[in-house]
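Give me the 3D structure for threonine-phosphate decarboxylase.
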Amino acid sequence: MTLPPHGSNPKYVYQATKLPTPQQLIDFSVNVNPFGSPPILREKWHEWFPLLEDYPDPHASILKREISIKEGIGEEYLLIGNGGAEIIALVAQLYQGKRILIIQPAFSEYEQACLAQKCIVEHHVLEEGIWKLKMEELLPKVKHYDAIFLCTPNNPTGVVYDRQSIIELVEEGYRSQCSIIIDEAFYDFTVDSETYISLVKQYPNLIVLRSLTKMFAIAGLRLGIGVAQPQVIQQLAALKPHWSVNAIAIKAGLECISQDSYIRHTKQLIHVERNRLKDFYKENGFCMSESAVNFYLVKDPTITEAAPLYEYLLKKGLVPRHTMNFPGLDGRWLRFAIRKQNENNQLMEALSEWKNQN
Ligand SMILES: Cc1ncc(COP(=O)(O)O)c(C=O)c1O
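Predicted structure for threonine-phosphate decarboxylase (358 residues):
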Protein backbone atom coordinates (compact mmCIF):
# COMPACT_ATOMS: atom_id res chain seq x y z
CA MET A 1 0.00 0.00 0.00
CA THR A 2 1.37 3.45 -0.95
CA LEU A 3 1.01 5.94 1.88
CA PRO A 4 0.48 9.66 1.45
CA PRO A 5 3.63 11.60 2.46
CA HIS A 6 1.84 13.67 5.10
CA GLY A 7 -1.65 12.41 5.73
CA SER A 8 -3.86 15.15 7.10
CA ASN A 9 -6.36 15.30 4.22
CA PRO A 10 -8.52 12.14 3.92
CA LYS A 11 -9.06 12.79 0.20
CA TYR A 12 -5.32 12.43 -0.49
CA VAL A 13 -5.10 9.44 1.86
CA TYR A 14 -7.63 7.48 -0.22
CA GLN A 15 -6.05 8.67 -3.49
CA ALA A 16 -2.56 7.63 -2.42
CA THR A 17 -3.61 4.28 -0.97
CA LYS A 18 -5.87 3.57 -3.99
CA LEU A 19 -8.60 2.43 -1.63
CA PRO A 20 -12.21 3.30 -2.53
CA THR A 21 -13.42 6.30 -0.50
CA PRO A 22 -16.29 5.17 1.79
CA GLN A 23 -19.52 7.21 1.82
CA GLN A 24 -19.09 8.12 5.48
CA LEU A 25 -15.73 9.19 6.89
CA ILE A 26 -14.55 10.13 10.36
CA ASP A 27 -11.27 11.99 10.24
CA PHE A 28 -9.13 11.02 13.22
CA SER A 29 -5.99 12.31 11.50
CA VAL A 30 -6.53 16.02 12.09
CA ASN A 31 -5.94 17.11 15.66
CA VAL A 32 -8.06 20.25 16.05
CA ASN A 33 -10.90 20.81 18.53
CA PRO A 34 -13.59 18.18 17.76
CA PHE A 35 -16.32 20.64 18.77
CA GLY A 36 -15.36 22.98 15.94
CA SER A 37 -14.79 26.72 16.21
CA PRO A 38 -16.52 28.85 18.87
CA PRO A 39 -20.09 29.74 17.72
CA ILE A 40 -19.35 33.46 18.14
CA LEU A 41 -17.21 33.34 14.98
CA ARG A 42 -20.20 32.30 12.87
CA GLU A 43 -22.38 34.95 14.55
CA LYS A 44 -19.88 37.72 13.78
CA TRP A 45 -18.92 36.58 10.30
CA HIS A 46 -21.21 38.99 8.38
CA GLU A 47 -20.18 41.91 10.55
CA TRP A 48 -16.56 41.25 9.55
CA PHE A 49 -17.25 40.99 5.81
CA PRO A 50 -16.43 44.67 4.99
CA LEU A 51 -12.90 44.12 6.36
CA LEU A 52 -12.13 42.31 3.13
CA GLU A 53 -11.71 45.62 1.34
CA ASP A 54 -8.92 47.11 3.46
CA TYR A 55 -5.39 46.05 4.26
CA PRO A 56 -5.11 44.60 7.75
CA ASP A 57 -2.99 46.14 10.50
CA PRO A 58 0.46 44.67 9.66
CA HIS A 59 1.30 44.38 13.36
CA ALA A 60 -2.07 42.96 14.48
CA SER A 61 -1.67 45.46 17.33
CA ILE A 62 -5.09 45.01 18.97
CA LEU A 63 -4.72 41.27 19.12
CA LYS A 64 -1.14 41.57 20.35
CA ARG A 65 -2.28 43.87 23.17
CA GLU A 66 -4.97 41.46 24.32
CA ILE A 67 -2.63 38.45 24.17
CA SER A 68 -0.05 40.44 26.09
CA ILE A 69 -2.59 41.07 28.87
CA LYS A 70 -3.78 37.44 28.89
CA GLU A 71 -0.28 35.95 28.99
CA GLY A 72 1.17 38.58 31.32
CA ILE A 73 4.05 39.54 29.03
CA GLY A 74 4.88 42.83 27.26
CA GLU A 75 3.72 43.37 23.67
CA GLU A 76 7.36 43.79 22.62
CA TYR A 77 7.87 40.08 23.42
CA LEU A 78 5.15 39.00 20.94
CA LEU A 79 4.86 38.41 17.22
CA ILE A 80 1.54 37.43 15.66
CA GLY A 81 1.88 35.11 12.65
CA ASN A 82 -0.12 33.45 9.92
CA GLY A 83 -0.40 30.26 11.98
CA GLY A 84 2.28 28.69 14.12
CA ALA A 85 3.67 27.43 10.81
CA GLU A 86 4.68 30.97 9.79
CA ILE A 87 6.51 31.49 13.07
CA ILE A 88 8.34 28.16 12.56
CA ALA A 89 9.35 29.24 9.04
CA LEU A 90 10.61 32.61 10.37
CA VAL A 91 12.59 30.97 13.16
CA ALA A 92 14.18 28.60 10.61
CA GLN A 93 15.11 31.63 8.50
CA LEU A 94 16.76 33.20 11.53
CA TYR A 95 19.02 30.13 11.81
CA GLN A 96 19.72 29.87 8.09
CA GLY A 97 22.57 27.43 7.38
CA LYS A 98 23.08 26.73 11.09
CA ARG A 99 23.19 23.44 13.02
CA ILE A 100 19.77 22.39 14.29
CA LEU A 101 18.76 19.53 16.58
CA ILE A 102 15.16 18.30 16.67
CA ILE A 103 13.86 16.25 19.57
CA GLN A 104 11.98 13.43 17.87
CA PRO A 105 9.40 12.21 17.18
CA ALA A 106 8.05 15.69 16.45
CA PHE A 107 6.02 17.83 14.07
CA SER A 108 7.61 17.44 10.62
CA GLU A 109 7.51 21.19 9.80
CA TYR A 110 10.60 21.92 11.93
CA GLU A 111 12.76 19.75 9.70
CA GLN A 112 11.15 20.94 6.46
CA ALA A 113 11.45 24.61 7.37
CA CYS A 114 15.08 24.20 8.48
CA LEU A 115 16.06 22.20 5.40
CA ALA A 116 14.50 24.91 3.23
CA GLN A 117 16.94 27.31 4.94
CA LYS A 118 19.89 25.00 4.22
CA CYS A 119 20.37 24.18 7.90
CA ILE A 120 22.21 21.07 9.01
CA VAL A 121 19.46 19.11 10.74
CA GLU A 122 20.07 16.27 13.19
CA HIS A 123 17.67 14.31 15.38
CA HIS A 124 17.66 13.33 19.02
CA VAL A 125 15.26 10.39 19.04
CA LEU A 126 13.54 9.59 22.33
CA GLU A 127 12.99 6.05 23.55
CA GLU A 128 9.93 4.61 21.83
CA GLY A 129 6.90 4.03 24.02
CA ILE A 130 8.20 6.24 26.85
CA TRP A 131 9.22 9.44 25.06
CA LYS A 132 10.76 11.11 28.11
CA LEU A 133 13.73 13.49 28.02
CA LYS A 134 16.87 11.79 29.36
CA MET A 135 19.05 14.73 30.29
CA GLU A 136 22.28 12.73 30.62
CA GLU A 137 21.94 11.96 26.89
CA LEU A 138 20.60 15.32 25.73
CA LEU A 139 22.63 17.94 27.66
CA PRO A 140 26.09 16.96 26.30
CA LYS A 141 24.75 17.51 22.76
CA VAL A 142 23.56 21.08 23.31
CA LYS A 143 26.92 22.81 22.71
CA HIS A 144 27.11 21.31 19.20
CA TYR A 145 23.99 23.11 17.93
CA ASP A 146 22.79 26.66 17.25
CA ALA A 147 19.17 25.83 17.98
CA ILE A 148 17.08 22.96 19.32
CA PHE A 149 13.41 22.43 18.50
CA LEU A 150 11.11 20.61 20.86
CA CYS A 151 7.37 20.35 21.16
CA THR A 152 5.53 20.05 24.48
CA PRO A 153 2.83 18.78 24.73
CA ASN A 154 4.42 16.87 21.90
CA ASN A 155 2.90 16.18 18.52
CA PRO A 156 2.56 13.24 17.71
CA THR A 157 2.82 11.52 21.13
CA GLY A 158 0.76 13.98 23.24
CA VAL A 159 3.39 13.63 25.99
CA VAL A 160 4.23 16.65 28.18
CA TYR A 161 7.95 16.78 28.97
CA ASP A 162 9.14 17.17 32.52
CA ARG A 163 9.42 20.88 33.43
CA GLN A 164 12.68 20.58 35.35
CA SER A 165 14.36 18.89 32.35
CA ILE A 166 13.23 21.67 30.02
CA ILE A 167 14.52 24.35 32.36
CA GLU A 168 17.88 22.52 32.51
CA LEU A 169 17.91 22.42 28.72
CA VAL A 170 17.18 26.15 28.41
CA GLU A 171 19.93 26.93 30.95
CA GLU A 172 22.45 24.72 29.19
CA GLY A 173 21.45 26.38 25.92
CA TYR A 174 22.03 29.79 27.51
CA ARG A 175 25.54 28.76 28.61
CA SER A 176 26.37 27.23 25.19
CA GLN A 177 24.75 29.93 23.00
CA CYS A 178 22.15 27.53 21.68
CA SER A 179 18.55 28.70 21.23
CA ILE A 180 15.75 26.50 22.52
CA ILE A 181 12.51 26.67 20.56
CA ILE A 182 9.56 25.30 22.50
CA ASP A 183 6.41 24.67 20.50
CA GLU A 184 3.33 24.89 22.72
CA ALA A 185 0.78 24.57 19.89
CA PHE A 186 -1.29 22.14 21.98
CA TYR A 187 -0.79 23.78 25.35
CA ASP A 188 -4.44 24.95 25.44
CA PHE A 189 -5.67 21.35 25.69
CA THR A 190 -3.71 20.45 28.82
CA VAL A 191 -5.34 20.50 32.24
CA ASP A 192 -2.43 21.23 34.55
CA SER A 193 0.75 21.78 32.54
CA GLU A 194 2.59 25.09 32.78
CA THR A 195 3.62 27.35 29.92
CA TYR A 196 7.23 28.46 29.34
CA ILE A 197 6.19 31.93 28.16
CA SER A 198 7.21 33.71 31.36
CA LEU A 199 10.74 32.20 31.16
CA VAL A 200 11.36 34.17 27.98
CA LYS A 201 11.98 37.33 30.05
CA GLN A 202 14.87 35.58 31.77
CA TYR A 203 16.41 33.70 28.83
CA PRO A 204 17.39 35.47 25.58
CA ASN A 205 17.94 32.05 23.98
CA LEU A 206 14.32 30.92 24.43
CA ILE A 207 11.60 31.16 21.80
CA VAL A 208 8.08 29.88 22.56
CA LEU A 209 5.49 29.19 19.86
CA ARG A 210 1.74 29.00 20.19
CA SER A 211 -1.03 28.26 17.73
CA LEU A 212 -4.64 29.41 17.92
CA THR A 213 -5.71 27.08 15.13
CA LYS A 214 -5.92 23.92 17.27
CA MET A 215 -8.09 24.83 20.26
CA PHE A 216 -10.32 27.16 18.23
CA ALA A 217 -10.49 24.98 15.10
CA ILE A 218 -9.51 27.88 12.81
CA ALA A 219 -6.85 26.10 10.78
CA GLY A 220 -8.26 27.76 7.65
CA LEU A 221 -7.94 31.26 9.12
CA ARG A 222 -4.34 30.89 10.43
CA LEU A 223 -3.14 32.45 13.67
CA GLY A 224 0.01 31.76 15.63
CA ILE A 225 2.14 33.52 18.22
CA GLY A 226 5.89 33.76 18.68
CA VAL A 227 7.23 34.80 22.10
CA ALA A 228 10.85 35.84 22.61
CA GLN A 229 12.96 38.72 23.89
CA PRO A 230 12.33 41.99 22.00
CA GLN A 231 15.55 41.88 19.96
CA VAL A 232 14.66 38.39 18.68
CA ILE A 233 11.07 39.47 17.96
CA GLN A 234 12.42 42.42 15.95
CA GLN A 235 14.61 40.09 13.90
CA LEU A 236 11.69 37.74 13.23
CA ALA A 237 9.36 40.64 12.41
CA ALA A 238 11.87 41.95 9.85
CA LEU A 239 11.70 38.59 8.04
CA LYS A 240 7.90 38.37 8.08
CA PRO A 241 5.98 39.31 4.94
CA HIS A 242 3.85 42.42 5.45
CA TRP A 243 0.12 41.77 6.09
CA SER A 244 0.61 38.02 6.45
CA VAL A 245 -2.07 37.98 9.18
CA ASN A 246 -5.42 38.81 7.63
CA ALA A 247 -8.04 41.19 9.06
CA ILE A 248 -10.65 38.52 9.78
CA ALA A 249 -8.13 36.33 11.57
CA ILE A 250 -7.32 39.32 13.81
CA LYS A 251 -11.01 39.82 14.67
CA ALA A 252 -11.56 36.09 15.16
CA GLY A 253 -8.45 35.87 17.35
CA LEU A 254 -9.81 38.59 19.64
CA GLU A 255 -13.02 36.62 20.12
CA CYS A 256 -11.22 33.29 20.55
CA ILE A 257 -8.89 34.37 23.33
CA SER A 258 -11.82 35.43 25.48
CA GLN A 259 -13.62 32.09 25.14
CA ASP A 260 -12.75 30.82 28.61
CA SER A 261 -15.83 28.64 29.10
CA TYR A 262 -15.44 27.14 25.60
CA ILE A 263 -11.84 26.18 26.44
CA ARG A 264 -12.88 24.73 29.83
CA HIS A 265 -15.71 22.73 28.28
CA THR A 266 -13.45 21.35 25.52
CA LYS A 267 -10.70 20.37 27.98
CA GLN A 268 -13.20 18.66 30.25
CA LEU A 269 -14.83 16.59 27.48
CA ILE A 270 -11.48 15.62 26.02
CA HIS A 271 -10.26 14.60 29.46
CA VAL A 272 -13.29 12.31 29.93
CA GLU A 273 -12.91 10.79 26.46
CA ARG A 274 -9.16 10.31 26.88
CA ASN A 275 -9.72 8.32 30.07
CA ARG A 276 -12.39 6.20 28.41
CA LEU A 277 -10.06 5.47 25.47
CA LYS A 278 -7.19 4.73 27.83
CA ASP A 279 -9.25 2.07 29.61
CA PHE A 280 -10.37 0.57 26.31
CA TYR A 281 -6.83 0.28 24.92
CA LYS A 282 -5.53 -1.24 28.14
CA GLU A 283 -8.33 -3.82 28.32
CA ASN A 284 -7.89 -4.76 24.66
CA GLY A 285 -4.11 -5.21 24.60
CA PHE A 286 -3.11 -2.07 22.66
CA CYS A 287 -0.29 0.30 23.66
CA MET A 288 -1.30 3.97 23.99
CA SER A 289 0.99 6.96 24.49
CA GLU A 290 0.76 8.89 27.80
CA SER A 291 -1.06 11.78 26.17
CA ALA A 292 -2.18 14.93 28.00
CA VAL A 293 -3.97 16.43 24.99
CA ASN A 294 -6.50 15.82 22.20
CA PHE A 295 -4.62 13.09 20.30
CA TYR A 296 -2.52 10.04 21.11
CA LEU A 297 -0.51 7.25 19.54
CA VAL A 298 -1.64 3.63 19.44
CA LYS A 299 0.19 0.43 18.60
CA ASP A 300 -1.03 -3.12 18.34
CA PRO A 301 1.97 -4.93 19.86
CA THR A 302 1.10 -8.14 18.00
CA ILE A 303 2.07 -6.59 14.63
CA THR A 304 5.46 -5.13 13.68
CA GLU A 305 4.13 -2.23 11.63
CA ALA A 306 0.75 -0.56 11.62
CA ALA A 307 0.03 -0.68 7.85
CA PRO A 308 -2.50 -3.58 8.01
CA LEU A 309 -4.39 -1.88 10.84
CA TYR A 310 -4.25 1.45 8.98
CA GLU A 311 -5.73 -0.18 5.87
CA TYR A 312 -8.39 -1.98 7.91
CA LEU A 313 -9.54 1.31 9.48
CA LEU A 314 -9.45 3.24 6.21
CA LYS A 315 -11.75 0.64 4.64
CA LYS A 316 -14.19 1.31 7.48
CA GLY A 317 -14.05 5.07 6.85
CA LEU A 318 -12.04 5.74 10.03
CA VAL A 319 -9.00 7.78 9.05
CA PRO A 320 -5.97 7.67 11.38
CA ARG A 321 -2.68 9.54 10.82
CA HIS A 322 0.11 7.18 9.79
CA THR A 323 3.54 7.73 11.36
CA MET A 324 5.88 6.68 8.53
CA ASN A 325 7.53 10.10 8.38
CA PHE A 326 8.17 10.51 12.12
CA PRO A 327 11.73 9.50 13.10
CA GLY A 328 11.52 7.02 15.95
CA LEU A 329 8.02 5.82 15.02
CA ASP A 330 8.59 4.77 11.39
CA GLY A 331 5.05 3.53 10.85
CA ARG A 332 4.78 1.30 13.91
CA TRP A 333 2.16 3.55 15.56
CA LEU A 334 -0.99 5.32 14.43
CA ARG A 335 -2.06 8.73 15.69
CA PHE A 336 -5.71 9.38 16.50
CA ALA A 337 -7.43 12.62 17.39
CA ILE A 338 -9.82 12.48 20.34
CA ARG A 339 -13.17 13.21 18.80
CA LYS A 340 -16.74 13.32 20.11
CA GLN A 341 -18.04 10.43 22.20
CA ASN A 342 -20.04 8.69 19.45
CA GLU A 343 -17.11 8.95 17.02
CA ASN A 344 -14.68 7.52 19.56
CA ASN A 345 -17.21 4.71 20.15
CA GLN A 346 -17.15 3.83 16.47
CA LEU A 347 -13.36 3.67 16.56
CA MET A 348 -13.39 1.44 19.63
CA GLU A 349 -15.96 -0.89 18.04
CA ALA A 350 -13.80 -1.24 14.92
CA LEU A 351 -10.69 -1.89 17.01
CA SER A 352 -12.48 -4.52 19.10
CA GLU A 353 -13.48 -6.27 15.87
CA TRP A 354 -9.88 -6.07 14.67
CA LYS A 355 -8.68 -7.74 17.86
CA ASN A 356 -11.31 -10.48 17.57
CA GLN A 357 -10.21 -11.23 14.00
CA ASN A 358 -6.45 -11.19 14.69
C1 LIG B 1 3.15 20.92 16.91
C2 LIG B 1 2.61 21.88 15.91
N1 LIG B 1 3.08 23.12 15.90
C3 LIG B 1 2.64 24.03 15.02
C4 LIG B 1 1.68 23.68 14.09
C5 LIG B 1 1.23 24.71 13.12
O1 LIG B 1 -0.02 25.15 13.45
P1 LIG B 1 -0.74 26.29 12.67
O2 LIG B 1 -1.98 25.71 12.11
O3 LIG B 1 -1.01 27.34 13.70
O4 LIG B 1 0.18 26.77 11.60
C6 LIG B 1 1.14 22.40 14.07
C7 LIG B 1 0.12 22.00 13.09
O5 LIG B 1 -0.21 20.86 12.90
C8 LIG B 1 1.62 21.46 15.02
O6 LIG B 1 1.18 20.21 15.04
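The pocket of pyridoxal-5'-phosphate is lined by residues 83-85, 107, 151, 155, 183, 185, 211, 213, 219, 224 (CB under 6 Å). Let me know if you want a second pass.
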